[in-house]
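Lecture 7 notes: from sequence to structure.

We start with a single chain of 268 residues. Read the sequence below before looking at the structure.
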Amino acid sequence: MVKPIAPLKGNTGALRSAFVLGALFFSLSGCRQDYSLSPPTDSEKITVTVKLPKELKTETMWVMYRSATCKSIGTGASGQRTERDGHHSVYKELERQGQSDLYQVELPKDGGGACRWHLANVTFGVEYADPARFGESVTFGVGGGVVVIFDDNNSPRGGANIKVEGDLMLKEDYYPWVDEEFLGAYKKTINLASKGDMYLSYRAMQARIVYFEPVLHSEFLVSSAGPKEKKKGNHTTFTYPDGSVVADGRSKPDFRKLQAIRLAAEGK
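Now the structure, written as tokens:
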């Protein structure tokens, strides 16, 4: 809220100056009085659905709205004043649909409010529900994430690798990847290895339905162990489901190799 200016007794010039400064401050800050979302009842909805494998759980969804009305004011490297669209984040849990394996959330495209918010992007994904099943003190690491951008801006995780026309329907293969790191503090994580980055990014400006089906190939586990000594030529060693061991400088598993091992085992 904009605070009222206290009366300035016996000083009309000061009062006038304070009023002008207050008006200027208000104009520069846009709708500073109310940044809240207030979606209209007839707002078009975007539905995000995840088909969840039994070993995984959904992550909390990060939803970002943007506003060209309420600017975010900052300072550039040279001290100059900068302006960019304001942003407003909310966090949503996807809700299970009955007793099915479908989890869903509906998001208003028009965020409304004095700032005229619009839905800009969402970040969501899946992770292991019980990392400890892979060993004591094992935690979830990375993988299984999706970013969908609905406007011309980048998301907090950058831009999009793929542009999609219409609705976005994703079905992706994932493999369990257990990684051990020895340099610095020891840690062991369970990750989800996929074909791309740990967050798959899409720009889908016309999408009204986003469907994500992660297919988890639990029986094809790949493990890796980082070097114990920081020395030239020491690389992370990967052990694949067929028993092959590779240390070729990669920082994550060879997805094509994993696919080939699985397809050969399945006789495809």
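The radius of gyration is 25 Å. Keep this in mind for problem set 3.
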